[in-house]
C-alpha cells in the first residue's frame, strides 16, 4: 500500500479482497449516498456535481465482487485464500447472530429502502440500504462522517437496540447534535492489540465462568462481530545498533511473553469469530465493504488502540474505545454515544519545500487542541486535501487522540481512490464541502518545520525557536514546559566513560533517538526522508554518538522493502538506526534499558536528558524513566537531532557537526528537498512489494505455530501465574443488579492537577525496582530481569492493581510538590505507596475518591486506568474535565465521574484533599438522570455542586449493574 497498509495494522487489522480482486471499491463512497458529489459548497453545486449526481452508492458497489474470506479459528495461520467462509461451517450459531446483527432485514423498519446491486449479465452482488431512497433533503447537508452513523442506524434498526427515533436524531443532526442527544452505534468489527487484548480475553474467559456460576450457558460468551487481535505491543528494544537486532528482539519477545501468547492462542481457538495475528508486518487494509449473506454495508471499526483513528485517513470510520466498551461491542451490545458535533477543517494551498507531514500534523494538533474538539468528529475538506497524500492523511488521522477528537476524518476523493487502485481497487468521486458545527482553516503554506514537547504532544515548538524554548524550559518552574534547573547548574557537563571511550552529557543531550510509532513509520515520504538525511550525513562524514540509543521500528515489512530498494537502509544502519522490530516500541515505553554508564551519568548528575522520537505521545515517564524531556519529531528530524546530539541547538545558525573535510556541517546541508523525497518515493515504493507481502502471510510465524495450548472452552486458571490471573470482577455476582452504591465519608486517595494521563494512572512501561508490583513479583520468584513491562502483565489483576498510580513522575498535591508514586494516608499522615494506602483504606472499609483538574485520563485508551482504581476501592473521580474514552471506561467499571461546575476546581473551592467526602446521589437508579447536578459535602462543612457524567441512559444501566460487564452477563442470562 502507498503508505504500507500495516501502517493500518494498528488502525485497521481487517482483511481486504485478495490483490487479484481488483474491483473492490471502498465503501467510503457511502459519502455519496445522498446522491450528489461535488467539490463546491453545498449551496452552489457545480455542473461537475450534476455529472455525478447519479453516481450513488450503487455506482460504487458495482465494482464489488465479494468481501474477503474472513478468518481461521485454529491455531495455525492461513492465507486469505484458504479461509473460505470458514466461519459459516465452523460456527453456525455465530453466523446466525452475525447475520442478524448485520442485516436485521426481516424486522427492519426501513426495509423498504433496501436496494439491489445488479451484476452485469444477471443476478445481483447483494443489497444495501440506500440513503437517497429516503428522499429527505436533510441528508444532503450531513457531514460524510455522520452519514456513516446514519447508515448503521438504518441497517440495524430493530426498534429495540436501535429505534426509528434514533435514526431521526441522526437525520436531524443539525438540530440534535448541539443538544448532546444519545444514539447507538454498532460497528462492523472490533480491533484489539495484545496489551489490551490479553485483559479482554481474560475478561471473556472470566465471564464464561460467571455464566456457569449463574447456571447459564457459557457458550453465549462469544464475539458476535469479527474481532482481530494483533500482537504488536510486546517487542522491546533490548538490542539496538546491530544487524541482528530484529531477530534478537523477537526471540526475547517470545521468551518473555510465551505464557501470554499461549493464552491468546487458546482464546483464538476457544472463542469463535476471533482472529489472533501472531506476527507483525502483515500488509492488510480495511475490509472496506462487508458482504454478509448478500447484505452490503460499510466497514467501520472500534479499537482498543486509541490510534485506531488512522483508518479515518482512508475514509473508513474508526475510533478508539475503552477495552470494556470493546468487549461489550464484541458481545453484540451497541455502543452508546452522544451524537457528535463535527468540526469542518478546511485545508488550502500547498506545503512548502522541506516541510513534512509530521510538521503538518503537529500544527493541526495544536490548532485543534486550542479550538477544543473533545468528543467531536473533525472532518477535513477543501482544495488542500487533494494536495496531501493518503499517507499524510493517515498521519493526521492517527493523531486524533492527541488533538482530542473522536475522529479526524478524510472523506473519499481522487487521492484516496488512487491509493485504493494501487492496492487493487478502482477510482471515482471527489469530495464536497458540507455543513459543520464549527469551522477551522489552515493554509498549508503556513506550516513550518517543528517539533513538540517536552512533555505534551500539543506543545508545538517551531524549529527556529527550539533553542530559546529549551532554555525557557530549563528556567521555568516544574510543569509541562519547565524543569526548574538553577542558572548555575544549566551548563553542567557530566563526563563518563562509554565502553572505554570518553563521553559527556549536558542538559538537553539526546540519549534516545527512535524512529518509531504507527504515526510516521509507515509514511514513505518521511521514512525515505530519514534515509536521505542519513545518506547525506554519511557522505559528509558525520556520525551519531555511540552512546545515543538509536532504533528503527517500521510500521510494516513493506517499509523495510522500500528502504532496501532505495539503498537508504545501509546509511541508516551506519548511523545506528538498525531495524529493531515491527511494533510499538519506544512510543509506548518499550525503549529498553539505557547503557548502564549513560543511566548512571544521568542519575548521578541530575541531567535533564532528552529523547527524540517520531511517535505520537511524549507524556512524562512514558518513553523512558530517565528522559525527562521527550520531543515528537518527523523521522528525518529524529536523525538530525541524533547527529547533533542535543536539542539545545539552533539549526539555522549552529552547525550540527564537523565534516570529514574539517568544515562545519549545517542542517541545510543534510536536509533533503521535497523533490528529492518525491523522487525516492516514486522509484522505491512499488506495487509488487505489497503483493509479495500478502503472499508471505502464508508462511506464518514458527514460534507462534509451535505453541501448544489446550482445546477447552473454559480456561484453567493457574493461581501461581504472574501473567494470567482470574480477576475478581464477578466473584459475588448475582442475578439481580446491586443498584447504585452511595459514597459516604470517603477519603481522598490522590489530589491531582491538570492533564493527568492514563500513563500516569496505569503506566505501560517498565516496572520500577522498588514499586509494590516489583515487590509482588520478587516474592513470587520472578527475577528483576524477567519483570517485563506493566503492559505485558495486564492479564494479571494483582500486578496491575499494584501498578495503578505507579508512574514515578506522578505529581500529587497531597505530597506538596514531591514527585513520585506515593500519597498521604490521611487518617495517619503516613506517606505510602498509593497501592499500600489504598489497601489500608479498603481493609478499614473506607471509600476513597480522586480529585483532579482538566483533561483527566487523556492519552491511551487504557482500560486498566479504570480497572485499577476500581480494584483500589476508588468510588468516584471529581475533575474539571475528562478525556472521552477514559470517562466511558470509568462508567464501565462502576466508578462515578463528576465534573466541577464551570470556573471551579479543587483549588478555587479550597479543597486540600484532607477532607472526607459524601456524594448525595439517589439510591434509586430511576431518580438519577444523565448529566444531573449533585451536591458533594465534606466533613469540614464545605459543600459544592458537581455534574454527574453519566451521559446516557445506557450508562445509568451500567452503573446500576456495577459496570458494563456485569450488565452484559445479566442480559445474556435472560436470553
UniProtKB/TrEMBL annotation:
<dbReference type="InterPro" id="IPR015931">
    <property type="entry name" value="Acnase/IPM_dHydase_lsu_aba_1/3"/>
</dbReference>
<dbReference type="InterPro" id="IPR036008">
    <property type="entry name" value="Aconitase_4Fe-4S_dom"/>
</dbReference>
<dbReference type="Pfam" id="PF00330">
    <property type="entry name" value="Aconitase"/>
</dbReference>
<protein>
    <recommendedName>
        <fullName>Aconitate hydratase</fullName>
        <ecNumber>4.2.1.3</ecNumber>
    </recommendedName>
</protein>
<keyword id="KW-0456">Lyase</keyword>
<dbReference type="GO" id="GO:0051539">
    <property type="term" value="F:4 iron, 4 sulfur cluster binding"/>
</dbReference>
<comment type="similarity">
    <text>Belongs to the aconitase/IPM isomerase family.</text>
</comment>
<dbReference type="Pfam" id="PF00694">
    <property type="entry name" value="Aconitase_C"/>
</dbReference>
<keyword id="KW-0004">4Fe-4S</keyword>
<dbReference type="GO" id="GO:0006101">
    <property type="term" value="P:citrate metabolic process"/>
</dbReference>
<dbReference type="InterPro" id="IPR044137">
    <property type="entry name" value="AcnA_IRP_Swivel"/>
</dbReference>
<feature type="domain" description="Aconitase A/isopropylmalate dehydratase small subunit swivel">
    <location>
        <begin position="774"/>
        <end position="902"/>
    </location>
</feature>
<dbReference type="InterPro" id="IPR000573">
    <property type="entry name" value="AconitaseA/IPMdHydase_ssu_swvl"/>
</dbReference>
<dbReference type="GO" id="GO:0003994">
    <property type="term" value="F:aconitate hydratase activity"/>
</dbReference>
<feature type="domain" description="Aconitase/3-isopropylmalate dehydratase large subunit alpha/beta/alpha">
    <location>
        <begin position="168"/>
        <end position="645"/>
    </location>
</feature>
<dbReference type="GO" id="GO:0046872">
    <property type="term" value="F:metal ion binding"/>
</dbReference>
<dbReference type="InterPro" id="IPR006249">
    <property type="entry name" value="Aconitase/IRP2"/>
</dbReference>
<keyword id="KW-0408">Iron</keyword>
<dbReference type="InterPro" id="IPR018136">
    <property type="entry name" value="Aconitase_4Fe-4S_BS"/>
</dbReference>
<dbReference type="GO" id="GO:0006102">
    <property type="term" value="P:isocitrate metabolic process"/>
</dbReference>
<keyword id="KW-0411">Iron-sulfur</keyword>
<dbReference type="InterPro" id="IPR001030">
    <property type="entry name" value="Acoase/IPM_deHydtase_lsu_aba"/>
</dbReference>
<comment type="function">
    <text>Catalyzes the isomerization of citrate to isocitrate via cis-aconitate.</text>
</comment>
<keyword id="KW-0479">Metal-binding</keyword>
<dbReference type="InterPro" id="IPR015928">
    <property type="entry name" value="Aconitase/3IPM_dehydase_swvl"/>
</dbReference>
Amino acid at each position: 500500500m502507498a503508505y504500507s497498509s500495516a501502517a493500518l495494522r494498528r488502525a485497521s487489522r481487517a482483511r481486504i479482497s485478495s490483490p487479484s480482486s481488483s474491483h473492490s471499491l471502498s465503501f467510503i463512497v457511502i459519502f455519496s449516498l445522498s446522491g450528489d458529489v461535488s467539490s463546491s459548497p453545498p449551496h452552489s453545486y457545480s455542473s461537475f456535481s450534476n455529472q455525478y449526481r447519479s453516481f450513488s452508492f450503487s455506482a460504487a458497489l458495482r465494482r464489488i465482487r465479494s468481501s474477503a474470506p474472513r478468518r481461521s479459528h485454529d491455531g495455525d495461520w492461513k492465507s486469505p485464500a484458504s479461509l473460505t467462509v470458514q466461519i459459516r461451517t465452523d460456527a453456525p450459531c455465530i453466523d446466525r447472530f452475525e447475520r442478524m446483527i448485520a442485516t436485521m432485514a426481516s424486522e427492519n423498519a426501513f426495509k423498504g429502502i433496501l436496494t439491489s446491486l445488479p451484476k452485469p449479465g444477471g443476478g445481483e452482488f447483494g443489497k444495501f440500504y440506500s440513503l437517497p431512497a429516503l428522499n429527505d433533503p436533510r441528508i444532503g447537508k450531513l457531514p460524510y462522517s455522520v452519514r456513516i452513523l446514519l447508515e448503521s442506524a438504518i441497517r440495524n434498526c430493530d426498534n429495540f437496540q436501535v429505534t426509528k427515533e434514533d435514526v431521526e436524531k441522526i437525520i436531524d443532526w443539525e438540530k440534535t447534535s448541539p443538544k448532546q442527544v444519545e444514539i447507538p452505534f454498532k460497528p462492523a468489527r472490533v480491533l484489539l492489540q495484545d496489551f489490551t487484548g490479553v485483559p479482554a480475553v481474560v475478561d471473556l474467559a472470566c465471564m464464561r465462568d460467571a455464566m456457569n456460576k449463574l447456571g447459564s450457558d457459557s457458550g453465549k460468551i462469544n464475539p458476535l462481530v469479527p474481532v482481530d487481535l494483533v500482537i504488536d505491543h510486546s517487542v522491546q528494544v533490548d538490542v539496538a545498533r546491530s544487524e541482528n537486532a530484529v531477530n534478537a528482539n523477537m526471540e526475547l519477545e517470545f521468551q518473555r511473553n510465551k505464557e501470554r501468547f499461549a493464552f491468546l492462542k487458546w482464546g483464538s481457538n476457544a472463542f469463535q469469530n476471533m482472529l489472533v495475528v501472531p506476527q507483525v508486518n502483515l500488509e492488510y487494509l480495511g475490509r472496506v465493504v462487508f458482504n454478509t449473506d448478500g447484505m452490503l454495508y460499510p466497514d467501520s471499526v472500534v479499537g482498543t488502540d486509541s490510534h485506531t483513528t488512522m483508518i479515518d485517513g482512508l475514509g473508513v470510520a474508526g475510533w478508539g474505545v475503552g477495552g470494556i466498551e470493546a468487549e461489550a461491542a464484541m458481545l453484540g451490545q451497541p455502543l452508546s454515544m452522544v451524537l457528535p458535533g463535527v468540526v469542518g477543517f478546511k485545508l488550502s494551498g500547498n506545503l512548502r519545500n522541506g516541510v513534512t507531514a509530521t510538521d503538518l500534523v503537529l500544527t493541526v494538533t495544536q490548532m485543534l487542541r486550542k479550538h477544543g474538539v473533545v468528543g467531536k468528529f473533525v472532518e477535513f475538506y477543501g482544495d488542500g486535501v487533494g494536495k496531501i497524500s493518503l499517507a499524510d492523511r493517515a498521519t493526521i488521522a492517527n493523531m486524533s487522540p492527541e488533538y482530542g477528537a473522536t475522529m479526524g476524518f478524510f472523506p473519499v476523493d481522487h487521492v484516496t481512490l488512487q491509493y485504493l487502485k494501487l492496492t487493487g481497487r478502482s477510482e471515482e468521486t471527489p469530495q464536497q464541502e458540507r455543513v459543520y458545527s464549527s469551522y477551522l482553516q489552515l493554509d498549508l503554506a503556513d506550516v513550518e518545520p517543528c517539533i513538540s514537547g517536552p512533555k505534551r504532544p500539543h506543545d508545538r515548538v517551531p524549529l527556529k525557536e527550539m533553542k530559546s524554548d529549551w532554555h525557557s524550559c530549563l528556567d521555568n518552574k516544574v510543569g509541562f514546559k519547565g524543569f526548574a534547573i538553577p542558572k548555575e547548574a544549566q551548563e553542567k557537563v557530566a563526563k563518563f566513560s562509554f565502553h572505554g571511550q570518553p563521553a559527556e552529557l549536558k542538559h538537553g543531550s539526546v540519549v534516545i533517538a527512535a524512529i518509531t510509532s504507527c504515526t510516521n513509520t509507515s509514511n514513505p515520504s518521511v521514512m525515505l526522508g530519514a534515509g536521505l538525511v542519513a545518506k547525506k550525513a554519511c557522505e559528509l562524514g558525520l556520525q551519531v554518538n555511540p552512546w545515543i540509543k538509536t532504533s528503527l521500528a517500521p510500521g510494516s515489512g513493506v517499509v523495510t522493502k522500500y528502504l532496501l530498494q532505495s539503498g537508504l537502509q545501509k546509511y541508516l544502519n551506519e548511523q545506528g538506526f538498525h531495524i529493531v522490530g515491527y511494533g510499538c516500541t519506544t512510543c509506548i515505553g518499550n525503549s529498553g534499558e539505557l547503557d548502564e554508564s549513560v543511566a548512571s551519568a544521568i542519575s548521578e548528575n541530575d541531567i535533564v536528558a532528552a529523547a527524540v522520537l517520531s511517535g505520537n505521545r511524549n507524556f512524562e515517564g512514558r518513553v523512558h524513566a530517565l528522559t525527562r524531556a521527550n520531543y515528537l519529531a518527523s523521522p528525518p528530524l529524529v536523525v538530525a537531532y541524533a547527529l547533533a546530539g542535543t536539542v539545545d541547538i539552533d539549526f539555522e545558525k549552529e552547525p550540527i557537526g564537523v565534516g570529514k573535510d574539517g568544515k562545519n556541517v549545517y542542517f541545510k546541508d543534510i536536509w533533503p528537498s521535497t523533490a528529492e523525497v518525491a523522487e525516492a518515493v516514486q522509484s522505491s515504493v512499488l506495487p509488487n512489494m505489497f503483493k509479495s507481502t500478502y503472499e508471505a502471510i502464508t508462511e506464518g510465524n514458527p514460534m507462534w505455530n509451535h505453541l501448544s495450548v489446550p482445546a477447552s472452552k473454559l480456561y484453567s486458571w493457574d493461581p501461581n501465574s504472574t501473567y494470567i490471573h482470574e480477576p475478581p470482577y464477578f466473584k459475588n455476582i448475582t442475578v439481580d443488579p446491586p443498584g447504585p452504591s452511595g459514597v459516604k465519608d470517603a477519603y481522598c486517595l490522590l489530589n491531582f492537577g491538570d492533564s493527568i494521563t492514563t500513563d500516569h494512572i496505569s503506566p505501560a512501561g517498565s516496572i520500577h525496582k522498588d514499586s509494590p508490583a516489583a515487590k509482588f513479583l520478587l516474592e513470587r520468584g520472578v527475577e528483576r530481569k524477567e519483570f517485563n513491562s506493566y503492559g505485558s502483565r495486564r492479564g494479571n489483576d494483582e500486578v496491575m492493581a499494584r501498578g495503578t498510580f505507579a508512574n514515578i513522575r506522578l505529581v500529587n498535591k497531597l505530597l506538596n510538590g514531591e514527585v513520585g508514586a506515593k500519597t498521604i494516608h490521611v487518617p495517619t499522615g503516613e506517606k505510602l505507596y498509593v497501592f499500600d494506602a489504598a489497601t489500608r483504606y479498603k481493609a478499614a472499609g473506607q471509600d476513597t475518591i480522586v480529585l483532579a483538574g482538566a483533561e483527566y485520563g487523556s492519552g491511551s485508551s487504557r482500560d486498566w486506568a479504570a480497572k485499577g482504581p476500581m480494584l483500589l476501592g476508588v468510588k468516584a473521580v471529581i475533575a474539571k474535565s475528562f478525556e472521552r474514552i477514559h470517562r466511558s471506561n470509568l462508567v464501565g467499571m462502576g466508578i462515578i465521574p463528576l465534573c466541577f461546575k464551570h470556573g471551579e476546581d479543587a483549588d478555587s473551592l479550597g479543597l486540600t484533599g484532607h477532607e472526607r467526602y459524601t456524594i448525595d446521589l439517589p439510591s434509586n437508579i430511576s431518580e438519577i438522570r444523565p448529566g444531573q447536578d449533585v451536591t458533594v459535602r465534606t466533613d469540614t462543612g464545605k459543600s459544592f455542586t458537581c455534574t454527574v457524567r453519566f451521559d446516557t441512559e445506557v450508562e445509568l444501566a451500567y452503573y446500576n449493574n456495577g459496570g458494563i460487564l456485569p450488565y452484559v452477563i445479566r442480559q445474556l442470562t435472560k436470553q
